[in-house]
Every structure is written in structure tokens, then in C-alpha cells.
Amino acid sequence: MAEIHLKTLAHSYSANPQSDTEYAIREMDHVWDQGGAYALLGPSGCGKSTLLNIISGLLSPSEGEVLFDGQRVNELSPAERNIAQVFQFPVIYDSMTVFDNLAFPLRNMKVRESKVQKKVLEIAEILELQDVLKNKAKNLTADEKQKVSMGRGLVRDDVSAILFDEPLTVIDPHLKWKLRRKLKQIHEQFNLTMVYVTHDQLEAATFADKIALMYGGQIVQFGTPRELFEKPNHTFVGYFIGSPGMNFIEVKRSESGVEFDGLKVSLDEGLQDFLEQIPSSNLKIGIRPEFVHVSVESITGSYECAVTHVEDLGTYKIVTLDLKGRSLKARLDEDQQVPEHKAYVSFPKQWLKLYVDEYLVEGDSE
Ligand code: ADP
Ligand code: MG
């Protein structure tokens, strides 16, 4: 197991990059602690696989260093780095039995046969592959093949880290949940450093203690699922995490806070002071649908808006509101009264966030 440090790392697939846009990974500094369960989350094309392949050594970064426990490993092959990697599609030997496939990484490392037996059976049990151990891999279903592929990544407990690149893509939906639980169980049992790549926030949150959210070749936030939800530090995090994502409204400065279309929004004093010192005019307020306060009657500090749509999702409702031509989503619990036609919304200060040039700013009081 190792601490993995990506030091002033950047990568471009073109030999002679001319601008930022030619970088698949824009300069970053990031540390994955030893023994952590991490998710690398982000939309397709944001650089997740590139980053994973740089960690494993399949790809050599154009700039910066990869350090394992403080030692530079840039020049080392994946085998020398002692990394296990599981890919989106199964990588197995069709002509071998399931047992021999699982045993392969161990036998390769000259592990003694009694230990091979023990480990293979242990992993087969966790992945529920006991019944097919003697079968040739080519006769397996797609799900089973991917489970074998995952098993090959999980069978060694002496690896520096295990990297998963969207490993459940080909797996049947009902099995996905189960396998994710199993991965978590394996992580807890063996205390391995695991980095799990996915574009699915639910998958990331159920697997990982901490999520690195990637956007445009950068990790824009590294935190617990809760931190990403409650305190998105970039508008992209607010938008990407949550269902639906955070509401954002472009605003202008006013004497006691900010305003849009003549509606004043007051801010914390600390934020207000901060706002006076910065020149940028790219200002947005953000609030999650879960935190928008909706009432049928007008209350202090509330804004009148029109109810344009109500979506009933069983245990809660998503209400779409029109506030001076801006669309706003609010999430209402089952027992909350749903306003018809007209509603009043207010933004509790603790959940109202301010973004300057797309980044969260916080007052001194927090
Ligand atoms: P993700 O895994 O998040 O979908 P990738 O790491 O695969 O993203 O890709 C990041 C960016 O790098 C994308 O713009 C993609 O088109 C580009 N890219 C990926 N692989 C290559 C490659 N072998 N050659 C050139 N460009 C690539
Ligand atoms: Mg990918």
C-alpha cells in the first residue's frame, strides 16, 4: 500500500501543446492517502482514465511527477509499481479456468501454492464465483467475466493500490449495487488504497469515503460526499452533484448584498466585506433545491413566484418555480403542502452560497 502523490502533474496528448485546451490533465497537485477508498468522479471526457493510467504507469505524464510514498515512480512500469487495475471491459484469459484466472496474478508473483488456494477461494467467495471456479472463462456470462476480471485485481493484498476504471459498466443493474457493497467490504477487510473511477454520483457516494470531482482536466473538489453536497466549492460541483443540481442565479452587487431584477438578497457581513474588495462582475448565488424554503403564504424575506411544474417522485416532490423569469427548483418532502399556481420562496442564509468567477467564496464568520 502506498500514499500516491501527483506532483505538479499535467498531461497533453499532443507533443507540442499550444494552449490549456490541449491538456487532458491541467496542472494539479493531489495526494491519495494510503488506505483510502476514493472515487474519481466526473463527466465523460474530463480526464479520469488519463489520470488513472498515469497513476498505474500505462501512460507517462508530459509534466510533473508521480510519487509513491515519496519516491518518484515515473520511470517504473505498472508491474514495477505493483498496481492492480480493473478496466471497463473484462481482461481475462478465455482458455483458462476461473480458478487459474484468479490465481494468475499470485502465481506470477511466485506466491506459494497453499496461499494461492486460500486467496483464490476467499475472493471467489466474496464475488460469489465458487460454483464456476472449474469452468473455462470463455463460457461465462458477461457479468461473471467482469467479476473474474475484478477478482484478478483484488486477489493480491500486497499491491500499492487498486485502480478501477468504471468497472461496473457492463454489469447488470441489480448486480451493480451488490458488487459495490462487496468492493467496500474488501476495502474494509484489507485496508487497501482504492481509486474508483465513475461518472455516476450515486456509485461514487456509495463506494468512497472521499470523492475527487473532476472537470475539464482538473480536480475541482476533493471531499466527502456530504461536503460536495453542502459546500460545493465550484458551480460545476453544485450542478453535477445532486438531483436536480444546485440552483444558480446571476446577480449584481447592491448596497447590502446582491440583487437581480430589482430583488435584493442580503448576505452575511463577512461576505459583504469580501465582495467590496474584488473587481469581478461574474457573481452568482447558489442554493440547493433541498434548501429552498417554499411556503404558501408570504413570509419575511420571501419572494413571490409562479409554480410552473410539480414532479411527484413518491417520497418527495420537485417543484419548478418561476422567479422573475428565472427557473428555480425546490424539493418538498411528502408531508409538505404543495402550493398551486403561486408560492413564496426564501433562501436560508446558511445554505445560500456566493460564487465569484464560478468559485465559492466564504465570509470570515464561517
Ligand atoms: P474520461 O475517462 O474522463 O472519459 P479521458 O481521460 O478518456 O476521459 O479523456 C480525456 C481527454 O483526453 C478527452 O478529451 C479525450 O478525447 C482525450 N484523449 C483520451 N485518450 C486520448 C488519446 N489516446 N489520444 C488523444 N486524446 C485522448
Ligand atoms: Mg474513461
Feature tags:
ATP-binding; Rossmann fold; 6-stranded antiparallel β-sheet; ATP binding; binds magnesium ion; alpha+beta; OB fold (Dihydrolipoamide Acetyltransferase, E2P); ABC-type ferric iron transporter activity; globular; 2 domains; binds adenosine-5'-diphosphate; 10 helices
Could you characterize what this model shows?
The structure is a single chain. This protein is of the alpha+beta class and 366 residues long. It has 2 domains: 4-232, 3-Layer(aba) Sandwich (Rossmann fold), CATH 3.40.50; 243-361, OB fold (Dihydrolipoamide Acetyltransferase, E2P) (Beta Barrel). Helices cover 27% and strands 33% of the residues. Strand 7, helix 6 (173-190) and strand 8 (194-198) form a beta-alpha-beta unit. The protein is globular and about 75 Å long. The chain starts with a strand and ends in a 5-residue tail after the last strand. The mean pLDDT is 93. Bound molecules: adenosine-5'-diphosphate and magnesium ion. Magnesium ion binds at residues 48-49, 165.
